[in-house]
Amino acid sequence: MNHAIRVHEYGGPEKLVWEEVPRPHPKPGEALVRQAAIGLNYIDVYFRTGLYKAPSMPVTIGMEGAGTVEAVGDGVTDIAVGDRVAYAGALGAYAEARAVPAEKLVKIPEGIDFTQAAAMMLQGMTAQFLIKRTYPVKAGDTILVHAAAGGVGSILVQWAKHLGATVLGVVSTQEKAALIKSLGADHAILTSENIPARVKEITSGAMLPVVYDSVGKDTFLTSLDCLRPLGLMISFGNASGPVTTDLGVLAAKGSLYVTRPTLNTYTAKREDLVASAADLFAVVKSGAVKIAINQKVPLKDAAQAHIALESRKTTGSTVLLP
Q1: Whole-prediction pTM
Q2: Cβ of 32: how many Cβ atoms within 10 Å?
Q3: Is the dihedral of CA 250, 157, 315, 50 positive or negative?
Q4: Which domains are assigned to the chain?
Q5: With 90 as the cut, is the pLDDT of residue 134 above it?
Q6: Which of 52, 184, 35, 12 has its CA nearest to residue 100?
Q7: C-alpha separations of 124 from 22, 131, 172, 207, 300 in Å
Q8: Which helix (H) or strand (E) holds 220?
């Protein structure tokens, strides 16, 4: 017997339907994974609401998980039955068992359990490419992270501090401010404050070389106002809605750069995926970055997890347990 959460029509959390589905058989190039834990991410909301369109309906949403390989299809050589594996960027995670393209799977090293792996793959590898490749953070940099108490944000804060940066984190409450300070953030800025003014004060007017923004529409212009001339705005999420703006604004605010990167692009090559995951596993095993799994929810109750995520009641990572 196999169950999954499927979406038959776009809409609110009530559109997440727990139902029995056939046990998949791996096709050539695929592996059948019996899942032990599944990661919750804001991209799941986008697929549920229709902001991101599914290839077909009904759709099993979810992008990351971890479990044990139960079978492999023809042509699979890197992954074997019995391997502990994790993945990100493969739609269809909200299921007890699922077939995954083997090229998306990485082996989980000793010292990392299933819940950690499921909670860190998408968010952690996103953080990895953001601070190692999109803008390589170096010692002495001062950076700003929006939604700093969230899944990607909390990893960015810790990893950037490990690299020697001064980290400014934006959060919505005093409780979240205390949380990110405990993770190493040098300054916690509340969303109710004048964020560019605080950045100007903290940097003595120098402003920032880079801003990491997963919020989208509501914070885009604010983020631009935090940058120094030729600074880089990294918009990697749409929690408040998609960004629409006149490119002339970039010229007016100092010949700024903007990018909208995705994990799938940065890990499209197998060697890049393996290297990103290895870097992530190493920094977590070292203790420099801790994966805070602050919410565990039964998979069948995924709607409750979506409600909590969208209302900003979650911190760190949430995992769904089959």
Answers
A1: 0.89
A2: 21
A3: positive
A4: 2-121+270-321 (3.90.180.10), 139-260 (3.40.50.720)
A5: yes
A6: 35
A7: 31, 11, 22, 27, 25
A8: helix 220-224
